[in-house]
Amino acid sequence: MAATVLALALRAYQLARPGQLLGVAWYDDGVLFGSSLRLVHGVLPYRDFVLAQPPGITLLMVPAALLAKVAGTAWGMAAARILTVAASAAGWSWAGCSCVTAGCWP
């Protein structure tokens, strides 16, 4: 639980810095968000365009891509960044529960 809170706090701090939420800050998030934008426009990954990542992140960002159709790409990208923060926090929670269950962490 503490690791999840720490991970969430660190990611929230990253996004709270100037230009990180709405600016052009990274490369990967743009590629992944772009794949979800293409998906909501009917273009399928692996069939219609090359995507080196697994499809989960593309599907995770579909709500952000739908928001981008209404509110604009910048706000869609901001929503996608917030979704990735939530997904990483969920991953830390899952990893912590798995370790406690397996007995590798007290």
Write down the Rg.
Answer: 16 Å
Find the count of extended strands (DSSP E, 2+ residues): 0
Instruction: Look at the helices and sheets and give the structural class.
Output: mainly alpha
Q: What is the overall shape?
A: globular
Estimate the helix proportion, in percent.
55-70%
How confident overall, as mean pLDDT? 83
What is the chain-wise order of helices and strands?
A: HHHHH
Task: Report on the biggest sheet.
Answer: none
The stretches of 5 or more residues where confidence is low (pLDDT under 50) are none
Strand content: under 5%
Q: Counting H and I runs of at least 4 residues, what is the number of helices? A: 5
Q: Gap between N and C termini, in Å?
A: 12 Å
